[in-house]
Structures are given as structure tokens and as C-alpha cells.
Design goal:
The chain is mainly α. The chain contains 14 helices and no strands.
Length: 413
């Protein structure tokens, strides 16, 4: 593809996911805070949050739409504006007596953000060279996680002095403005899959891609509990178990964890361009498993919570960057159903997060905080070690066949 302008830097490309980060960060962090502030009960908050986050697991059923019809740029901008308008409307119309309407609007915002992220990802595969997939994966997660955390902290801070309606206007403007970085992306390709044949052609293309051994191995890695780092979302609820104060927990699991994850993402992106991405992904799982087991067996103090949470979040950043880079690699370039395939990879990884969150919760129910981290760590190590051995065998076989610099998970054509 002949680009009329220079390719954007990996940092700028990574910022393309900021829209999704702001919306998802609001749903995960700021939404429960605001509902509690409005006097909504914890059980109803849990229901609203679960429904609002659900597109992360089922939106892949709709991602074929962004591979057809309009260009991925058109989908990226229009879906970003839908997400912004939905969040603004949800907060503008909010009332504890209209939670169904509020939930529906936030659900629409999350769905639009997930599909927008798939459109941006598919667009990115059109121009991203393999040598920059790791760097972009790192910056992508900095924007997603760091941007989402900072945006949520700003909204929660602002909530002390302004109304929900004003919060809606501010949040809508933030999400809308986050799409402007996409203006620096190269022009997208014209879709080759037509709307009329979307199900038939997309299904055929995706099935053909999924039959490739590297892609099948990728799904195995993403579905495994090795590197899903499910405990990352549970540290904020463990202050009492570690005898830590509320402010300490807030800073460690908020700003501290965001900084650690961002730095880990940059490190993971750097490494993903210099070593096999599958090996990096599983190696991160081994290290997070060791960290979890250490947290289970050591004394539980505020210091151990801070150290454990920061180390775990940094390693999670490495895993996230490796996942993103590996997803781009397995999708390949000039893939007409790239957004769909990336959506399937994300659904697989999110499925692992869901079932491991449940497993971690069962560990806590049976043996409290030690059980939580033992369940998390032993599951990660039990999956990562054999998968790492399998990957090492594969790379040795490929390198014997194609030379010392052959990638273990080759890029699909």
C-alpha cells in the first residue's frame, strides 16, 4: 500500500486505543464509585457493572461488521462518537430510580468502545510493520490502562464538586477528543468484504485463518490461565487482609498500579520486538505465578501489599504488551477480516480472565487471601510451564528447518 505521508510513530499508533481505555476505565473504576456516591446498594452496583462490562466477552459476534461496508476509519470515528454520546447521556439522565436506562446507555457505550477498538486494531494491521508490533503493543496498553486509570481518577476527583450532568459533558468531550489521534493514521484500505456477504465471506476467511497451526496455538495461549493476570483487579479489595489503610490502598492500587503497568507495558513492548512473542507471553505468566505464590506464603502487611501489587501490575503490563504484539503478528498484514480475528483473540483472553477471577474468588472463599493467591499462582504456573516447554520445542524445530532467526509463531500470510 502506498502511503502519502510518513507512518506514525509506535507511540502515536498506541494512543489509538485511548478511546477504549477511557470508556472501559470509567466502567470498571469510576462507575461503581459514582453509583455508591448516589446511594445505590452494592448488589445493584454489581449488577450494573456486570451488565456494562459484558461486551468485552460477546462483542466479537458483531466485529465482522467493522470489516465490511465502510472503511475502518469511518467506523473508528463514528463508534467513538457513539460511545461519547452514550456516556454523556447516561450521566445527564442519571437517577437512582432509572437504573435500567442508565445501564442500557453505559452498555451501549461499552459495546461501541469495544467495536471501535476492533476497528482501530484492524486499521493498524494495514500499515504496521512486524518490527514495530512490540513497541505498538506496549504503547497501546499504556494508553488503554494508564489513560483509562487517569481518566477515571479525574472523573472521581471532579465528582466532589460538580453535578452528574456536568460530569457527563466532561466525559463525553474527553472520549470524543481521544479519537483525534486517529487523524494521523494513514488512509485505510477499501473493504473487500461486502455487507451482503458478510456472514459467508467473513466466516470463511476466519475459519481459514483459525485452521493455521500458529493461530490455533495462539488461541491455546490466550485461553490458558497462564498469563491472564486475573488478580490485577482484586488488589483494591484486599486492604483489610493486608492490614493496610484506605488511603494506602487507593494510592497503591490506583496511581501506583497504573504507573507500574505502564512501565511494564513499555518493557514488554521493547522485549516483544527482540524475542519470540509467545515465549515472552508465557514467561510473563511464569513470573506472575511466582509473584502470586510469594504473596500467599509471605506475611501480609501494608508493605507486602504495596510491593506485591506493584510487581504484579508491572508483570501484567509485560503480559498485555506481549498479547497485543502476538495478536498483531498472528493476524498478519492485508487481512480483510483483521478486526474480527483480533476480536476473537480478545474474547479468548477475556474468557480466561473471567474464569480465573472466579477461581481466585473460590480460593479466597475457602482459604482467604492465601487461597486466592495460591489459586492464582498455581494455575498460572501449572499452565505456563508446559506451554513454555511446548513453545521451546516448536522454536527449535522451526529454527532447524529455517535457520536461527526463524520466528516460533510465524506471521500468517
Amino acid at each position: 500500500m502506498n502511503h502519502a505521508r510518513p507512518l506514525p510513530t509506535p507511540r502515536l499508533v498506541g494512543m489509538g486505543t485511548l478511546t477504549f481505555g477511557l470508556v472501559a476505565g470509567f466502567v470498571v473504576t469510576a462507575l461503581p464509585f459514582l453509583l455508591a456516591k448516589a446511594g445505590v446498594s452494592v448488589d445493584r452496583i454489581a449488577t450494573v457493572s456486570a451488565v456494562a462490562m459484558s461486551p468485552a466477552f460477546w462483542a466479537f459476534l458483531l466485529t465482522p461488521l467493522v470489516d465490511t461496508g465502510l472503511t475502518r476509519r469511518a467506523y473508528a470515528f463514528s463508534l467513538g462518537l457513539v460511545a461519547a454520546a452514550s456516556l454523556a447521556a447516561a450521566l445527564w439522565l442519571f437517577s437512582p430510580h432509572r437504573l435500567v436506562l442508565f445501564t442500557a446507555l453505559v452498555l451501549l457505550a461499552e459495546l461501541a468502545a469495544v467495536l471501535q477498538g476492533s476497528a482501530v486494531g484492524g486499521w493498524t494491521t494495514e500499515f504496521l510493520p512486524d518490527t514495530q508490533r512490540g513497541k505498538v503493543g506496549g504503547w497501546l496498553n499504556v494508553a488503554n490502562l494508564g489513560g483509562g486509570a487517569l481518566g477515571s481518577m479525574f472523573i472521581m476527583w471532579l465528582a466532589a464538586s460538580v453535578s452528574f450532568r456536568a460530569l457527563g459533558v466532561v466525559l463525553g468531550l474527553m472520549v470524543s477528543a481521544s479519537t483525534l489521534v486517529l487523524l494521523r493514521f494513514p488512509p485505510p484500505a477499501t473493504p473487500v468484504v461486502r455487507l451482503r456477504g458478510i456472514l459467508r465471506e467473513t466466516s470463511r476467511s476466519v475459519v481459514a485463518a483459525c485452521r493455521q497451526p500458529p493461530v490455533q496455538l495462539g488461541f491455546l495461549l490466550f485461553l490458558a490461565p497462564a498469563s491472564c493476570v486475573a488478580a490485577i483487579n482484586l488488589f483494591a479489595s484486599l486492604g483489610q487482609d493486608f492490614h493496610a489503610g484506605a488511603q494506602e490502598v487507593l494510592w497503591v492500587t490506583g496511581a501506583g498500579a497504573s504507573l507500574a503497568t505502564g512501565l511494564g507495558s513499555l518493557l514488554g513492548g521493547y522485549l516483544a520486538d527482540r524475542m519470540d512473542r509467545g515465549v515472552l507471553y508465557m514467561s510473563g505468566g511464569v513470573l506472575t505465578g511466582v509473584c502470586s505464590v510469594a504473596l500467599a506464603l509471605t506475611s501480609h502487611t501494608g508493605i507486602s501489599l504495596a510491593a506485591g501489587a506493584l510487581i504484579y501490575n508491572a508483570l501484567a503490563g509485560v503480559c498485555y504488551a506481549a498479547f497485543s504484539a502476538l495478536g498483531f503478528q498472528l493476524t498478519g498484514s492485508r487481512n480483510p477480516t483483521a478486526a474480527t480475528q483480533l476480536g476473537l483473540f480478545a474474547a479468548a483472553a477475556n474468557a480466561a480472565v473471567v474464569y480465573m477471577t472466579w477461581v481466585d474468588g473460590q480460593g479466597y472463599r475457602l482459604w482467604h487471601v492465601r487461597g486466592l493467591f495460591l489459586a492464582d499462582g498455581l494455575a498460572a504456573l501449572g499452565a505456563a510451564i508446559p506451554l513454555l516447554w511446548l513453545l521451546q520445542r516448536r522454536v527449535r524445530k522451526l529454527r532447524r528447518a529455517a535457520g536461527p532467526h526463524s520466528p516460533m509463531l510465524p506471521v500468517p500470510g
